[in-house]
Amino acid sequence: AVRLGRTVADAAWRRRGAGVLRLEANLARVVPDAGPEELARLSRAGMRSYLRYWMESFRLPAWSPERIRDGVEVEDVDLLHAAAAEGRGVILVLPHMANWDLAGAWLSTAGGHPFTTVAERLRPESLYDRFVAYREGLGMEVLPHTGGAAFGTLARRLRAGRVVCLVADRDLSASGVEVSFFGEAARMPAGPAMLAQQTGAALLPATLWYDGSPVMRGRVHPRIEVPADGTRAERTAVMTQAVADAFAKGIAEHPEDWHMLQRLWSADLQGNGRRPAGGGTGES
What we know:
By secondary structure, the chain is an alpha/beta fold.
């Protein structure tokens, strides 16, 4: 299965499609000193990592709790357990790294923390329903991103002492916060910082990676505190920048495991950013 996944990933990489070109353009910001050969190596490894994510995810519903437990090792997980023990809820935020579905399955089984998350509503509706059923089968409560009701439901879950997990390195709304990410402007969701301020829940970034073994690795980063001073918007900006900094640290250490095949930086979204090698424009 591993060999098949690499074969498929390598074939996709050699086609030099929009997603691969966009991945290389994004990696050029993460590793600015990398030349064309290094970027090609990273993007090839990135596509292999991305295919591993999909192959694992398709099989996850059939995995036993023991296999899920043994398939993940998390550094500094005591930070999560200690925050959860306070009883005020935990907001765990992650970038699109390695396999966040596997991390979620581990968290709700071996980690002992059933949680709530949010998913972008997909079309057709039947696809979204299957997607939700799949994740709920892994022990997650899934709320639709659209409709505006998700924030209130998440706040209620946090006030009840539950865990909320959000993939938060790409803003899907018009209300994101501008951050400096690898030295350039990007926008990330304001929701995690706003939820932490409104509910008193702990805000913890986490990053994930593969190390060549069957086991996925992860790290829980230190808690992001609510600033004592400033307006709510100012506090939100400071906290979201701290999230971006934690993500950048994890991504810089394992760039090949960051599955960002879309435009992310503001310059690219405005059409002014650098173009990937080969002249592709990437995905919108």
